[in-house]
């Protein structure tokens, strides 16, 4: 395949918003291999791309396939996170989970529970946001230095978003129960709210640790085209 043909494929990829590393690599390999294996060797790359688009069901069909692959990769990456998450409920990492839970609970006995939860979430969210942005910038710089046609990875999106949403939802829960969480003395309902908040915060912290492990891992997924 000539450099000109590779450039035409690259433009085709950009036109169809295949701007994530995983999607770009998969569709590029599919198109390049099908072009090299074409029965009619007189067919040029432009004609082949039109045929590929037709085989995918036109513009609408292409969008559906791209979105399907997008979701497939997201599910696969979340499965990796969940596999790490489960290890924190098995020995020996179960001790880490118990220690996190005990630490959060003990802090709620010394300080107002609302602020313990609030600062715990701020710290973990701030940490993940800072390093997430840093890694995203480094990733973009690396892609630019290597003159790659994409600037993003589905891995960053699939792993990072649940961390942000988890923090957001627990903060909403804490805000809705602020009266109980800032009280000087707790009734039965107040103690229940604290227990639920401690459990949710522990699960969030454990997910955060699992997500960090998954993000740093070198899994290279390949979801075959349908």
Element pattern in H and E: HHHHHHHHH
* Proportion of strand residues: under 5%
Q: Helix share of residues? A: over 70%
Low-confidence sequence ranges = none
The averaged pLDDT comes out at 83
Determine the N-to-C terminus distance: 24 Å
Q: How would you classify the helix and strand content by structural class? A: mainly alpha
The count of DSSP E runs of length 2 or more, i.e. the number of strands, is 0
* Shape label: elongated
The total count of helices amounts to: 9
Any idea what the radius of gyration is?
24 Å
Largest sheet: none
Descriptors for this entry?
0% strand; 9 helices; single chain; mainly alpha; 226 residues
What's the topology here?
Blueprint lengths: L2 H13 L5 H16 L8 H11 L2 H30 L6 H17 L2 H33 L8 H23 L1 H4 L6 H29 L10
Describe this structure in words.
This protein has 226 residues and is mostly helical. The chain is built from nine helices and no strands. Helix 1 (3-15) crosses helix 2 (21-36), helix 4 (58-87) crosses helix 9 (188-216) and helix 5 crosses helix 6. It is elongated. The two termini are 24 Å apart. The model has no long low-confidence stretch (mean pLDDT 83).
Brief summary:
By secondary structure, this protein is mainly α. 78% of the residues lie in helices and 0% in strands.
